[in-house]
Amino acid sequence: MKKDEVPQDLSSLGKITKELCYATDSSGKYVAALSSGWDVKITALDVAWGDIEKRIAAAKQKVLNKEASQLLFFMEYRLMDISILAGYTGFWKWQIKRHLKPEVFDKLSTQKLEKYAEAFNIKVEDLKSMTIHED
Amino acid sequence: MKTDFEHRQGAHCESGVTSNLLSIASNGKITEPLAFGIGAGLFFAYIPLIKINNGPAIAFRTLPGYIFNRTAKSLGIPVVSKRFSSKQKAESYLNECLEAGNPVGCQVGVYYLPYFPKEYRFHFNAHNLIVYGKEGDNYLVSDPIMETTNVMDSYQLERVRFAKGALAPKGHIYYPKQGAIITDETIKQAIKSGIKKNVYNMLNIPGSFAGISGIRNTGKKIKKWRDKLGIEKSKLYLAQMVRMQEEIGTGGGGFRYIYAAFLQEADAYLPGNQLAEISVLFTQAGDMWRTAAVHAAGIYKGRIGSQDDFNKMGDYLIEIAEVEKNAFERLKNIKWQ
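Above: the input entities. Below: the structure tokens describing the complete assembly.
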């Protein structure tokens, strides 16, 4: 890639920092060049997030239909699978699977709910009410 | 408290951290491309059985941790490397290092990294940064992919040092011992050994998941994705591939440009071995990876998507495999001058 061909399509990262990449100057020598983003990878990231948004919406519907507890919604929202959540909370995977049932989740102690809230970086009342605040 | 440290931006987190941590010992000679090449950083692997964000694992670089360890070892630098089960011990050890004047590398997860934009936060636990000081409850952080330094409070730093999930960092901390000196002769030997190791990784790993055969095989598989996975899932997979190839930390073209830059710098240390000429082949490979990415984007944007388009996508990788095979064979056959 030639230095003057380094793409400068503003990405969400580009607003915070430019990325360093390696490109050749007019004599063919490699130099460090800064890029504020590239349309091709901005769209790739959009595709990934589009899929995540779909999963979050599906999880929300399941919670509203009482097919799953609020945990499922926040797991999708925080891109966590059961192993990652087990890592953050210290619960066993089988416990989390139980807590994914609405009737079990509704009876959880505040102490347990706090562990989940910390893992998701939210407040207990938001966990219960499935409320998100953009961060 | 602040250690003697200068932040320099890099393309890739681990080679950037390595280069910056070795800056004093090498008098600034170990640039990021040199660290990447000596650490035999270039790679390709496609592992559909391991899922990352619901897509296949595709890597254009070697395993996390490998570049620092290999580079330091090849340059004869003793390394301190520790992991912790206790968060308290991890923090007090970090503080001791800083008090002793050592900037230290830390492996972290990016999901809760406060200065990253939300769109870039995934549960990826093999990111690297340097902690070079502490003021009150705030740690001074040099993340090589960022233009400037950042500050994180002790809770924020603990959270990312103890991120959970695959490749959990467990407070992993590492740094070169002070006092080592790197000579030009050591660098020459380290370059040769790094190239040799990278040749092996790309040409000789058995099976068809890694190296050149991995690229070729992935090209063949892509041609079948449309029928096998359906168009929607194929789009996700292609987008995942492009992200691994081009996203922050690659220097562009799936690390091929940074490797080309390495060979150019290596040529100055070891002239007469055609390293500069071979570097041009890696530039070509990088350009081809980017052309393939543009084609992939056409598919995941929904602009194109016929079976012909998938065949063309697969053929791009098969052609790249040929170019890289030739480049690595030329590296393999060097009679060092």
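Note for the figure: Residues 122 and 132 of chain A are 8 Å apart (CA to CA).
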